[in-house]
Amino acid sequence: MIHLKKAVRSFVQSKYLDLFGATLVLVISIYNQYHLTYYFQGNVKFDVPFSEQIALIKQGAFPLGIFSTIGAVFSLLSTRFVGKQNNVGNIIGVFTTINSGTIDYFLGNHSAAITYPLTFIITYFAVIKWKKGEKIRKIDINYYLINSVGLVLGYLLVYIGTEIFGGRDDLLFFNIVSITFGLSLGANFSSALKYETTFLSWTIYNVVQLIKAFLQLNIANIAKYIFYMINAAITLGDWIWNRDVRKKAALS
Known about the structure:
Elements lengths: L1 H12 L1 H17 L6 E3 L2 E3 L4 H9 L5 H20 L4 H19 L5 H20 L9 H25 L5 H22 L5 H18 L3 H23 L5 H4 L2
Antiparallel strand pairs: 1-2
InterPro entries: NMN_transpt_PnuC (IPR006419)
Organism: Cloacibacterium normanense
GO molecular function, one term: nicotinamide riboside transmembrane transporter activity
C-alpha cells in the first residue's frame, strides 16, 4: 500500500505528465481545427484557410479558435497544478475562465454572460483561500450540499441566461450545458475548500464529457477526456491517501 501511495503522488506531481497532457490537448485542438475558427460580424466562421486569416483579422475578426486552443492548454495546466495543490493552478484558472466564457458566448452559449462570472468569483475565492494555507479537509454534509446546489444553480442560471441573452436553446444543448456547468460549480467550490473528494466531482464531470464525446463520435475528444478522467481519479486517491503536500513539493 505504501508503494501505491508513493506511485500515486509521483503521478500527480510529475512534470512529464504536465508536458504530456499539455501536448495531448494541443494536438487534439489542432486536429479538431479549432485554430481555424473565427468570430466575424456576429457569426462564427469555421475552417478559415491560413491564407485568409490575416485579411480577416484586419477587418476586425476575433481569432476564436486560437484563443480556444491556447485556453485548452492552460486549462489542462491549471487542472494539473490544482491537483499538485499549487495555487498557481487557481491563478491560471482565473484567466482561463475569462477566456472560456468569451469563447462559449460567441459559440452560442449566451448564458455564459452570467454563468462564467460566477465561476470567476469561485476561482478567485480559491486563490485567496489557498494563499491563506487551506488544508485538505474530510468530506462532510456540506460537500454534498455544495454539489447538489451546484447542479440546481447550473440549470437555473443557464435557463435565466438563455431567456435574457438568447443563443442556442434546443433541449439537448440546454441539458448538456446545465449539467456540465452545475458539476463544475460544485467541483470548483469543493476545490476552493480543499475537500478530499474534490476530484470525485471532477471525475464525474469528465465521465459526462466523455459520454458526450462518444455520442458525437469525436475520437480526439474521447482521448482527451480519458486522460482527464484518469488524471482526476488518480488525483482523488492522492488527496485522500497522501493528504497535504509540503510547500517544497507543491512548488516542484
